[in-house]
Specification:
Order of helices and strands: EHEHEHEHEHEHHHE
Number of domains: 1
Helix content: 40-55%
Distance between the termini: 25 Å
Mean pLDDT: 97
Radius of gyration: 17 Å
Shape: globular
Number of helices: 8
Number of strands: 7
Structural class: alpha/beta
CATH topology: Rossmann fold
Strand content: 15-25%
Strand order of the largest sheet: 3-2-1-4-5-6-7
Bound molecules: nicotinamide-adenine-dinucleotide
CATH architecture: 3-Layer(aba) Sandwich
């Protein structure tokens, strides 16, 4: 792991009780960032809070990102406790159920879009308001390789993740003059509970997926966290509006 020094930085991570967000919270903690972490799963949140607190100062809040009022409130809490938000990572997401478009329900569409896209719109907006006052900051939104291609039975997920990229690009263009960078990380198949759930539901999914990945393995959550550390740091000072794909060559 490359070492980064975030010791003077305040970092907000939303969606960090599991998988990629958990690894990212730990990576930033080990880099000495002061953390404000949030998730809807209180038990998972407390567990990662205890782990991260071995390395740094950590505050946490329970939030369901579909609740706009509460999502805005936790941004206010983060600023009041830390004084600034130097880097924000918007990671909370769900894949929804595998259902063909013709058989799908509007309620499923609303749930996935509210969780994966509307929440990133509200979070990015709150983060930009704060960062414009600071005249600095870095926002990292978590998209997917399915931001760029279709996925069988995953129309709400693919649509939401495509939206994350366009929101990221627009936010980057509008905020560059304030010294703010906004980027997306787009993972391919990463070994997390989200993907494991699909492997257990769909016969041969794991074997078939592995055949499409040139590296013939899934990614590790830590390999996504490494990209977040880089994007949030001065090492990426001329990078904005971009989507960094981490997929073992899947999309190549
Ligand atoms: N694992 C993969 O292969 C993969 C691939 C591409 C993109 N992604 C994206 O990466 C992100 C993290 O996924 P993961 O694989 O680590 O999944 P995960 O299920 O392990 O973690 C998702 C986290 O988001 C939180 N979350 C979900 N809905 C929430 C809500 N309404 N309010 C607050 N928190 C909520 C969960 O509690 C959990 O901590 C997601 O946005 C996902 O779409 C994952």
């Amino acid at each position: 792991m490359v070492t980064y020094d975030y010791s003077s930085k305040n970092v907000l991570i939303i969606g960090c009780a599991s998988g990629i967000g958990r690894a990212t919270a730990l990576a930033f903690a080990k880099s000495k960032a002061r953390l404000f972490i949030a998730d809807k799963q209180d038990d998972g949140l407390q567990e990662i809070k205890e782990e991260a607190a071995k390395y740094t100062h950590v505050n946490s809040a329970v939030v369901d990102v579909r609740d706009e009022k509460r999502l805005i409130e936790i941004h206010e809490q983060a600023v009041s406790l830390m004084g600034s938000i130097d880097c924000a990572i918007n990671n909370a997401g769900i894949s929804g159920s595998f259902t063909n478009l013709v058989e799908s329900e509007t309620s499923e569409w609303n749930n996935v879009l509210d969780t994966n896209l509307k929440s990133i719109y509200i979070s990015t907006r709150s983060q930009l308001k704060q960062m414009i006052q600071q005249k600095s900051g870095s926002i990292i939104n978590i998209g997917s390789v399915l931001s760029f291609k279709g996925g069988y039975g995953l129309s709400p997920y693919c649509s939401s993740k495509a939206g994350v990229i366009q929101l990221t690009r627009t936010a980057a263009i509008e905020s560059a003059k304030h010294g703010i960078r906004v980027n997306a990380i787009c993972p391919g198949g990463i070994e997390t509970p989200l993907l494991r759930k699909h492997f257990s539901e769909i016969p041969n999914y794991e074997q078939n997926l592995l055949k499409t990945i040139p590296m013939r393995r899934l990614g590790k959550p830590q390999e996504v966290a490494e990209a977040a550390l880089w994007l949030g740091s001065q090492a990426a000072s001329y990078v904005t509006g971009q989507s960094i794909v981490i997929d073992g060559g899947f999309s190549a």
